[in-house]
Amino acid sequence: MNLRSPLGAAMAHGSARSGTGHWRDQRLGAVALVPLGLWFLWALLTRPDLGHAGVVAWIAEPLTAVPLALFTLVALWHSLLGTAVIIEDYVHSHGLKAVSLVTLRLVHGLAAAAAIVALVAIVGGGAG
Length: 128
Prior knowledge:
By secondary structure, the protein is mostly helical. 78% of the residues lie in helices and 0% in strands.
């Protein structure tokens, strides 16, 4: 028997106990993407050489690789949160929703891993 009132049970948790955190994380990701996106756009537009060798050399610089890694990971996290909300809101079959959310997390996780491996390979001199 639960002696808590419905208000006490729901207080500061949202209806699913995670909505507030999800909303906050998505907004923080969006705020972080503004300066990172502007940096990325500015850095690309000011590059004298946008050929493969020039971009690889640019990425190999540690002062480029770190913000690029942050930009990539924050963008993927923001994408995961946003597309998960779409699936949760518009996919009504519980089985399809569960499979879709797992697949979504797997695809975003693989993309993040691939991006980090690629950045490490470029910075380490293994690509180019």
